[in-house]
């Protein structure tokens, strides 16, 4: 009998880049990053949000450095984070005046773990080359890596105009969108080549070519990945709000990640008014975990509900358990090895409940409409106990806690 084989390609080989304590590319796990939306001039507010993003699981955090006051604030933000025991590397997002800021505020240039430069808006004509060089020279001086981030909304207009003219004069002109794709890739690769000529090593360069459209992004990154071995940062430039942003990011990044493309990702969600900025971190983690590329937190499988599950109890329990394990992971990840790989199932009736529950490490099958008011719990495929009464949720959480303590080895304590 023939067996079905996995059709997913291997991870693309890329040059590894060290960003503070975090490694990007070179076979390292795909890194989750995010960006603050506070005014960087406000040290306290920015420090608080960076720490919140890091606590949620952001392994790198980018901050805007757009004014002299913001540049002056960066060393203080770094110091405050260090005092809190938050070692997350900070990335400085530079545009337009970045060459002045890294020159005039060396404390800022030193405190950042990486610089992000957009070659489309560092200047025009001769100034562009000069100002780009100043930024790269600062990166060389302070031994910092750089992300050369090309963006379709701020693509170098001179480069695009030249390529459009060349295309128009050719005997077989291509579609305008194809020329724009090529301009994005050319800008990234030529900028990286120039950075190397100035003295920045390949092991300090990360590239990105961000678009807003899902198909556009996939097309550009497939071509970029085939033409270089630089580490690649993935993300839509403006994913959008709510479900639209989540769906668009998932659709685009999942395709690329499953093709082995991408070394670090950011989900650019627009928060609802008063919304949690850390939502984009959770979405990034869930994309990587559901595609089988990394594990961050035990996942809870839950049935969608139907006419057999007219009670909302299983929905409430699933939500409660998912929130509980995500919060507990802040403790578990410090104490236990491998707990992020645990799987849980909260099912709502007898049709798929017992079977699905047996496939999880811990599963509970709640009674559906008209069924006996009991809830069997399965542990590693075997029925362990039947819960009933008013404290099923509390008793199930206790079972999860006991399973973690029993199943996963304690991490070694560093004596130093």
In short:
The protein is of the alpha/beta class. It has helices spanning 43-56, 68-83, 98-104, 106-111, 125-141, 157-169, 176-198, 214-227, 242-258, 279-290, 313-335, 353-359, 392-407, and strands spanning 17-19, 22-24, 31-35, 60-64, 90-94, 114-117, 146-151, 205-210, 231-234, 240-241, 264-265, 269-270, 299-302, 343-347, 362-365, 375-379, 382-387. The chain is globular.
List the helices and strands and how they pair.
Blueprint: E1 17-19, E2 22-24, E3 31-35, H1 43-56, E4 60-64, H2 68-83, E5 90-94, H3 98-104, H4 106-111, E6 114-117, H5 125-141, E7 146-151, H6 157-169, H7 176-198, E8 205-210, H8 214-227, E9 231-234, E10 240-241, H9 242-258, E11 264-265, E12 269-270, H10 279-290, E13 299-302, H11 313-335, E14 343-347, H12 353-359, E15 362-365, E16 375-379, E17 382-387, H13 392-407
Parallel strand pairs: 3-4, 3-11, 4-5, 5-6, 6-7, 7-8, 8-9, 9-11, 10-12, 13-14, 14-15
Antiparallel strand pairs: 1-2, 15-16, 16-17
Helix pairs in contact: 1-2, 3-5, 6-7, 7-8, 8-9, 9-10
Please describe what this structure looks like.
The strands form four sheets. The protein has an eight-stranded parallel β-barrel with strand order 3-4-5-6-7-8-9-11, surrounded by five helices. Strands 13-14-15-16-17 form a five-stranded mixed β-sheet, sandwiched between helices. Strands 1-2 form a two-stranded antiparallel sheet. It starts with 16 loop residues before the first strand and ends in a 9-residue tail after the last helix. The protein has helices spanning 43-56, 68-83, 98-104, 106-111, 125-141, 157-169, 176-198, 214-227, 242-258, 279-290, 313-335, 353-359, 392-407, and strands at residues 17-19, 22-24, 31-35, 60-64, 90-94, 114-117, 146-151, 205-210, 231-234, 240-241, 264-265, 269-270, 299-302, 343-347, 362-365, 375-379, 382-387. It is α/β, with parallel strands linked by helices and 416 residues long. It is built from 13 helices and 17 strands. It folds into two domains: 17-291, TIM Barrel (Alpha-Beta Barrel), CATH 3.20.20; 299-407, Sulfite Reductase Hemoprotein, domain 1 (2-Layer Sandwich). α3 (98-104) runs parallel beside α5 and α7 (176-198) packs across α8. The relative contact order is 0.09. α8 links the parallel β8 and β9.
């Amino acid at each position: 009998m023939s067996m079905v084989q996995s059709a997913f390609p291997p991870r693309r080989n890329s040059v590894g880049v060290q960003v503070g304590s975090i490694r990007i590319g070179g076979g390292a796990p795909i890194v989750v990053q995010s960006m603050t939306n506070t005014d960087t001039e406000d040290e306290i507010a920015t420090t608080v949000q960076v720490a919140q993003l890091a606590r949620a699981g952001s392994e790198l955090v980018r901050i805007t450095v757009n004014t002299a006051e913001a540049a002056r604030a960066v060393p203080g933000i770094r110091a405050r984070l260090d005092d809190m025991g938050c070692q997350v590397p900070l990335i400085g997002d530079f545009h337009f005046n970045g060459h002045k800021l890294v020159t005039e505020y060396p404390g800022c240039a030193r405190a950042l773990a990486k610089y992000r430069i957009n070659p489309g808006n560092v200047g025009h004509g001769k100034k562009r080359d000069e100002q780009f060089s100043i930024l790269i020279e600062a990166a060389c001086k302070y031994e910092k890596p750089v992300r050369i981030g090309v963006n379709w909304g701020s693509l170098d207009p001179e480069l695009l105009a030249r390529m459009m003219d060349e295309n128009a004069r050719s005997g077989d002109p291509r579609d305008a969108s194809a020329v724009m794709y090529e301009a994005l890739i050319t800008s990234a690769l030529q900028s990286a080549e120039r950075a190397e000529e100035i003295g920045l090593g390949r092991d300090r360069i990360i590239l990105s070519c961000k678009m807003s459209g899902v198909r556009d992004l996939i097309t550009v990154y497939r071509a970029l990945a085939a033409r270089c071995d630089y580490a690649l940062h993935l993300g839509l430039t403006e994913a959008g709000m709510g479900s639209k942003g989540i769906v668009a990011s998932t659709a685009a990044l999942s395709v690329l990640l499953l093709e082995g493309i991408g070394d670090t990702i950011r989900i650019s969600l627009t928060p609802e008014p008063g919304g949690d900025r850390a939502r984009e971190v959770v979405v990034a983690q869930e994309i990587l975990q559901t595609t089988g590329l990394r594990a961050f937190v035990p996942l809870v499988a839950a049935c969608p509900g139907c006419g057999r599950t007219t009670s909302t109890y299983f929905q409430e329990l699933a939500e409660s358990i998912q929130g509980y394990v995500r919060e507990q992971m802040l403790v578990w990840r410090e104490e236990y090895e491998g707990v992020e790989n645990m799987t849980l199932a909260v099912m709502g009736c007898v049709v798929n409940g017992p079977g699905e529950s047996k496939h999880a490490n811990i599963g509970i099958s709640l009674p559906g409409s008209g069924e006996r008011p009991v809830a069997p719990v399965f542990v590693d495929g075997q029925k362990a106990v039947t819960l009933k009464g008013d404290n099923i949720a509390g008793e199930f959480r206790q079972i999860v806690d006991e399973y973690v303590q029993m199943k996963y080895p304690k991490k070694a304590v560093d004596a130093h």
